[in-house]
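Sanity check. The docking grid for zinc ion depends on where the pocket ends up, so I'm generating a full predicted complex first rather than guessing from homology. Inputs follow.
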Amino acid sequence: MTSKLWLVFAAIAATLSPSLPAQNAPSTNPPNIFEPLNAMLAGGKSAWTPDQLSAMERLRDAAMQDTYALNKLRYLTDNIGPRLSGSPQAQRAVDYVAGEMRALGANVTLEKATVPHWVRGEEKGEVVSWPGQAHRTTQKVVLTALGGSVATPPEGITGEVVVVDDWQQLHALAPDQVKGKILLFNHKFDKELAAQGDGLNAYAGSVVYRGAAPIAAGAAGAIAVLVRSVGGADYRLPHTGMTQYSPAVPKIPAAAVSAEDADLLKDLTSQGPVKLHLTLTPQTLPDAPSFNVIADWKGAEHPEQVVIVSGHLDSWDLGTGAIDDGAGVVVAMQAVHLMKELGVHPRRTVRFVAWMSEEEGSEGATAYMSDHKDDTSNHMAAIESDLGADHPSGIIYAGKTELGDWLRPLQAVLDPIGAETLLSAPETGEDIEGLTAKGVPSFAPRQDSRF
Ligand SMILES: [Zn+2]
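Predicted complex below; grid placement will be based on this.
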């Protein structure tokens, strides 16, 4: 049920082509979308015609029933599986999505992007000495390498563990307290903030540690770094994600430990010296050629002007990438499918994009901005679904404040499915960040992020 609401957003996003006064297309000096909209609103008119609102209602109702997206997601996740950048599965997913979009009748192009190619190896953590240790015992520590991490030697390393809760505690330590040791950042994910519905800011508060921990720890002379797993997941599950190195600081192996194991290490180190044996054998292979999948559904009046409907195709390798971001890709596919099914003919071109390598540095989006740098002004709007796959409570938008006025009539369309909230935000999606920065109105479904 809840995931079907996604489809509604993608479907409605596909119609984000308000009834602007007719322009001569193609135009060498594309229209500023805001001026005609403001003129219409100032004249007491809605930015949307009754026909457009009724088309949105039809898309909404069809999206709540249609199984197209679910079936595509099933294949993408169960049959293809994890789609790490540069992997054979990522390439298989590119071919699959391109084929499916061609089957719908869209004009498909594969646009090249060069992406990182990092592969996970063995990963193992074991506490080998601690206060109160029974003779001839060790304790397992559940951990997983962070994306981009360098390796330990194949036989692993052993070091004393130092635990800090945050940057301040690290800075308070004397330099020799970290040198030669394994540093754990035990920054707790703010579950209360997430429970209040702001999972995104809870995530943002912790993910900075995952990103910058190797630099801070490397600069302090640590031999490896651990971070408490980012996110509210329990059941001793570690959560991976990209980490960062600086050319000025030695690169050290980096892993996330489960919340329970971070608590274990914190408690034991509060009692005395604790030694951990850590083995991580990931490899960073040469950058690999890959693609964004672009599929245009031609607009009837202004085919040169595009509205992007998108998700990212790559995914981390610990799961099958259903939520992050298979769901975003398939609902964007479904937007085109539903327009075809219902005979909805957009005035502008609806451009489906399956972005590549969002997780490892947004190389696909960077390539897109470079390839389309002379064409940015023909981008009328962009939406990316990459904030989960739970019930959307509304729409996040980034751009001029007038966008709120423009969107307001959509609340009546979205209210019956409990998704009528409109929220202005500085950003909407990582892959459409470049377009947002260029002034292109951008959007994202506002997901229930409590879990
Ligand atoms: Zn994502």
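Relevant for the grid: Confidence is low (pLDDT under 50) at residues 19-31.
Also worth noting: The CA atoms of residues 299 and 349 lie 4 Å apart.
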